[in-house]
Design a protein that fits this description.
The protein contains no helices and 18 strands. Residues 1-12 have low confidence and may be disordered. The chain has 269 residues and is mainly β.
Length: 269
């Protein structure tokens, strides 16, 4: 997640969202997010590299970082630290924050922040000067609730070492609107996959009645790459969770990758 906040004067705001620009003091940030599910079954799953369904938290939590390989550790030949980015409570508001957590191989290392949402995680330091075939990680790395709980972000190894999370979801802070500009989907060409974009407003309301989940876009089954660039960007209000899910057509080997771009417009609380 790019953490530079630019004024509308500094940022070349795409023409189709120019209507949200008011003056040179507006603060914007462009978010490029991407995720993948490598084995979608015939029941709905979220687009994340660890597959399955993400269970959205309703209470703050701390995360721990753990690898499947002992060499992802200080002094090792893999990942030595991971940066986690997301949202935490500041009073009743959700604000952005990040923390760097040192790795210790197979032993979970606990972070310090009480998180409410995790938007991204990536390797910050490695024991290897990486190349295409020299990986920055030796194992799959999970960012999970302390005590081997819910996986909020996974840095998949595969055979190439992704180096960062693959999660097609994003949560807006309390001081920003989001404008969805672009969605690209990349399926397995032999197996049709349906996919969906959902939202839940007022994520910071943590006791019932909660704001309901609503579908934003219902995409038909696809077998080839598809891109949607709305003529008028889709607006999301502060404190909104957005995420992509999919349903495969056959077996458990359907694949789907999702890329999307948001422009955040910040305001003072």
């Amino acid at each position: 997640m790019n953490d530079r906040r630019l004024t509308s004067f500094q940022l070349n705001v795409p023409p189709q969202i120019d209507f949200i620009k008011t003056d040179k003091t507006d603060k914007f940030k462009i978010i490029h997010k991407f995720g993948a599910n490598f084995a979608i079954g015939t029941s709905i799953e979220d687009i994340q590299s660890n597959g399955g369904i993400y269970n959205w938290p309703t209470l703050p939590f701390k995360v721990e970082v753990v690898s499947t390989d002992a060499d992802d550790t200080a002094g090792g030949n893999g990942a030595r630290s991971v940066i986690v980015e997301g949202l935490k409570f500041d009073g009743a508001n959700l604000i952005e924050d990040s923390e760097e957590i040192a790795t210790n191989g197979l032993i979970p290392v606990l972070g310090l922040i009480d998180w409410f949402r995790i938007n991204r995680a990536f390797i910050e330091k490695s024991g290897v000067y990486a190349s295409t075939t020299s990986l920055s990680q030796q194992g799959t790395i999970n960012v999970q609730t302390e005590g081997a709980g819910e996986i909020h972000a996974q840095l998949a190894l595969d055979t190439i070492g992704f180096g960062q999370s693959l999660i097609a979801r994003f949560s807006l802070p309390s001081n920003a609107f989001g404008y969805l500009q672009l969605i690209s989907a990349f399926p397995d060409s032999a197996k049709p996959v349906r996919y969906f974009l959902f939202q839940r407003k007022n994520s910071n309301i943590t006791s019932a009645p909660f704001t309901a989940k609503r579908i934003v876009i219902n995409f038909p089954p696809i077998t080839e790459p598809a891109t949607l660039s709305p003529q008028n960007p889709v607006e999301f209000t502060p404190n909104t969770d957005i995420w992509f899910s999919g349903i495969g057509s056959t077996g458990s080997t359907n694949e789907l990758g999702i890329d999307f771009e948001l422009t955040l417009k910040f305001f003072d609380l």
